[in-house]
Specification:
The chain has 13 helices and twelve strands. The strands form two sheets. Strands 1, 2, 3, 4, 5, 6, 7, 8, 9 and 12 form a ten-stranded mixed β-sheet that branches. A two-stranded antiparallel sheet has the order 10-11. The chain is globular and about 65 Å long. By secondary structure, it is of the alpha/beta class. Helix 1 (17-26) links the parallel strand 1 and strand 2. It has helices spanning 17-26, 48-58, 73-84, 103-114, 150-158, 170-174, 202-211, 240-259, 267-286, 296-310, 318-323, 326-337, 339-358; strands spanning 3-9, 35-41, 63-67, 89-92, 98-99, 118-126, 135-137, 146-147, 166-169, 180-184, 187-191, 216-228. The termini are far apart.
């Protein structure tokens, strides 16, 4: 099998979201025998799994539908898919997105022509089903491509881009992980524990280790992947669970770097990635009063203390100095000195700004 594509699915049947995704996959120009589409239902409460079963009947040998008896979020569904994937190459796609008909053929052709073991492309942000590109997002850049060296690794770590808009040689994803049989709610499944389960941001947690396994990266500067924007998307959701999951993913970034022995070599890059995911983005998502984050004062205080403990000198990181907005740096500096002062100042500042908007 040339390529396995894994699709984690949770409650995506409505508005034909799942249908658009699966139609784009079963219609890929790669012939039967070269591609397998493994869709994993993550204990949906709608008719997503029934829809998947219909595709399995209509496309035998090309499409596999699996049901997880327990909801473990996307990481758990991906681990189930990886447990049975036979492809030399592995790809992932979100169940509400879709791709052009020759997407995987073009990525594999690029790999064949160059000897790359990871190939990506750009994507387009859209708010309806279409193959006309909307806002184009450059997922990577030419400076990151070619045979990898230390500078290219640094660039990939800093700006990895979306993991779903790429394909990977099997070893990049799997490493030394071997599939195992597990029983959940009376059902026996095969899993490969690559992704953390029961959290969002599972991609962020593993991306650094994947990038440092890459030997040669290539990139097609065209939007071949369509990223559907809607209010239920993880990136639009702010809840305490969502924020805690960001922090968990940040902790795993640090743990993976220590366990795999690359923290010291790439410390500025790892420190900055941790700072942004674990701390900066989480802090300024939690602080607005309208988010109604329970226990916000104590939650953000503990976050600041943990950030200071993990990387005491993060405010001197060169990427932090270059990339973090001046006002955010000012507020963060304030919190590092006095959380009470920071909290009161932030809430008063935004109360004043919101008051001006209403006038």
């Amino acid at each position: 099998m040339r390529l396995s594509v894994i699709v984690p699915v949770y409650n995506m049947a409505g508005e034909d979201k799942l249908k658009h995704c699966l139609d784009s996959l079963v219609g890929q120009t790669l012939p039967d025998g070269e591609i397998e589409i493994i869709a994993v239902d993550d204990c949906s409460t709608d008719n997503s799994f029934e829809l998947m079963q219909d595709y399995e009947k209509r496309y035998p040998g090309r499409f596999v539908a699996i049901h997880s008896p327990v909801n473990h979020h996307q990481g758990g569904a991906k681990n189930i898919g990886l447990g049975i994937a036979k492809g030399e190459w592995l790809g992932f796609i979100d169940a509400d997105d879709w791709v052009v008909p020759d997407y995987y053929e073009r990525l594999l052709k690029k790999a064949d022509e160059t000897g790359a073991d990871m190939v990506g492309c750009d994507y387009s942000l859209v708010d309806c089903y279409t193959f006309t590109p909307g806002q184009i997002v450059h997922n990577n850049n030419a400076e990151q491509t070619g045979v990898m060296d230390e500078e290219k690794y640094k660039k990939l770590l800093l700006d990895t881009g979306s993991l779903v808009v790429k394909i990977y040689k099997r070893n990049i994803v799997m490493g030394d992980t071997k599939p195992v049989s597990v029983t959940e709610n009376g059902s026996t499944l095969t899993k490969a524990y690559v992704f953390p389960e029961d959290i969002f941001y599972e991609d962020n947690a593993v991306s650094n280790t994947w990038m440092l396994r890459v030997k040669h990266f290539e990139y097609i500067e065209e939007p071949l992947y369509f990223y559907f924007q809607h209010d239920a998307s993880t990136v639009h959701t702010v809840s305490k669970k969502n924020l805690e999951d960001r922090m968990t993913a940040g902790r795993q970034i640090l743990a993976e770097a220590k366990e795999n022995g690359y923290l010291e070599k790439y410390k500025p890059e790892i420190e900055f990635m941790y700072t942004v995911l674990f701390y900066v983005n989480t802090l300024f998502s939690a602080m607005p009063k309208e988010q109604h984050i329970e226990g916000c004062y104590d939650f953000t205080k503990k976050m600041g203390l943990e950030m200071k403990e993990a990387f005491p000198g993060f405010q001197n990181n060169p990427y932090y100095l270059e990339r973090i907005h001046a006002e955010e740096k000012k507020l963060i500096g304030m919190q590092m000195k006095s959380h009470l002062l920071f909290y009161a100042y932030y809430r008063l500042l935004w109360f004043y700004r919101n008051l001006r908007k209403k006038r």
